[in-house]
Amino acid sequence: MMNNKYKILLIEDDSNIRNIMIPMLETADYQVICADGCGMGKTLYQSHQPDVVILDLGLPDMDGMNFLSFVRHDSLTPIIVLSARTDDVDKVSALDAGANDYVTKPFSSAELLARIRMTLRNYQHRSNSGKFPGGVFRLQELSIVYDARQVFIAGREIKLSQTEYNIIALLSENCGKMMTYAAIIKGIWGYPDEGSVKKLQVNMANIRKKFGVKPGEQWYITNELGVGYRMNGVNEE
Ligand code: CA
Q1: How far is the CA of 54 from the centre of ligand 1 (A)?
Q2: 124 C-alpha vs ligand 1 centroid, how far in Å?
Q3: Distances (CA, A) of 69 to 12, 58, 64, 75, 123
């Protein structure tokens, strides 16, 4: 019988965490291979070609960032960073180095499993469709027609400025992925300047208003202060 389970490479040196995570991932029907350092992680990555990598950043032989750049050199295999580092700067540098997502220790198994599902779905969506079927992006009630640069909520068109549209289009093309401020600014304006983050926040507030979202209400974009924005379905996290 073909083994069609998703294969996860877990790179983590803490055996207590491995002993919790392995059965948790196997119960969720993933196949798990394990490395306790960066060097072993690279070897197993090459021999096993995993579907997802869960990567601890604090590893004994090398920093996990080293593994990130090793993979991103020639592959888009999803990588979820697992880190005790709560500092925003570390999250931002891991995301900018190509991590798809991160989970901060301590985390719940529900949270990690949700991140894995979201990352896999996002990755498949991108690789299956090239772009999106018929050039239309759909997420629950939100749809975006790329050729016409039109955005709809439940069939009602939302009139956005050029910049606002560009932001929404960029986030939708990376749906599910946490995009750092720097990555969005580079994608929209090409270069950062002093006021870029503020400018981005103002645009985001305007988009939110045009979408008709009330204060405190969940919508398609979540903001992690000091890190960036992520587009995902409402009530998915
Ligand atoms: Ca560690």
Answers
A1: 12
A2: 29
A3: 17, 15, 9, 10, 18
